[in-house]
Amino acid sequence: GQQVMQIPQYQHVQEGEDFTTYCNSSTTLSNIQWYKQRPGGHPVFLIQLVKSGEVKKQKRLTFQFGEAKKNSSLHITATQTTDVGTYFCAVKYNFNKFYFGSGTKLNVKP
Amino acid sequence: NAGVTQTPKFQVLKTGQSMTLQCAQDMNHNSMYWYRQDPGMGLRLIYYSASEGTTDKGEVPNGYNVSRLNKREFSLRLESAAPSQTSVYFCASRVGGEGKTQYFGPGTRLLVL
């Protein structure tokens, strides 16, 4: 399967600080998806990136896909307590199977 | 429209017992998935089904069997549970094709003693 490395594993921030998580692959990706999982919950789709160098924004969240399509990042500006959770990237391999990164757990102190 | 439903929510098994986890979706999706999530880790694909009657192994299929009897339902069976199968199990469904998101069920928390 196609593997992605996700860093950092944990991030603790003060409310209002920024947060970034990264996914890196050794091979070129066709696309990459991002999911958020609240504590005790299930993963929820955030966004998909397809094009080289693509940047998409959702309010305080900014998603980027690298020029070589081997890495991606999710940046949250001015975190809020509602941002708490684990953020996963996911890549497709073998037609319709998905490989998930190990996730970055975000904790926000009020 | 309930989305993806899973039963049971919680289950405790003894080593060697068997059980079936049920998953159903009402979104008319072709593709369905079973994942397991261990503490502090990402999701690992157990089995995948592209359509009714077809299944394919994922990253960690050993110790599991699946059945896709119709478009709505995709079940996961543990024939002889082991403590290493203690995990949270998520079912997901997807329309299929490029760029389509997966919709996840609420999960089944399984403890094998």
Describe this structure in words.
The complex is a heterodimer of chains A (110) and B (113). Chain A has strands at residues 4-7, 10-14, 19-25, 32-37, 44-49, 55-58, 61-65, 71-76, 85-93, 97-100, 104-109. Chain A is mainly beta and 110 residues long. In chain A, the strands form two sheets. In chain A, strands 2, 4, 5, 9, 10 and 11 form a six-stranded mixed beta sheet that branches. In chain A, strand 9 (85-93) and strand 10 form a beta hairpin. Chain A is globular and about 40 Å long. The relative contact order of chain A is 0.33. Chain B has 113 residues and is mainly beta. Helix content of chain B is 0%, strand content 48%. Chain B has no helices and eleven strands. In chain B, strands 2, 4, 5, 6, 9, 10 and 11 form a seven-stranded mixed beta sheet that branches. In chain B, strands 1-3-8-7 form a four-stranded antiparallel beta sheet, with no helix packed on it. In chain B, 35% of the residues are buried. Classes of the chains: A mainly beta (110), B mainly beta (113). Chains A and B meet through strand 5 and strand 10 of A and strand 4, strand 5 and strand 10 of B.
List its salient traits.
heterodimer; A: 110 residues; mainly beta; six-stranded mixed beta sheet; five-stranded antiparallel beta sheet; 11 strands; globular; B: 113 residues; seven-stranded mixed beta sheet; four-stranded antiparallel beta sheet; 48% strand
Net shape of chain A? globular
Q: What pattern of helices and strands is seen along the backbone of chain A?
A: EEEEEEEEEEE
Helix content of chain A: under 10%
Count, helices of chain A: 0
- Helix- and strand-based class of chain A? mainly beta
Largest sheet of chain B: 7 strands, mixed
Distance between the termini of chain B: 36 Å
Secondary-structure element series of chain B? EEEEEEEEEEE
Helical proportion of chain B?
under 10%
Q: Based on Cα principal axes, name the global outline of chain B.
A: globular
- Biggest chain contact: A-B, 24 and 26 residues
User: How much is the average pLDDT of chain A?
Assistant: 94
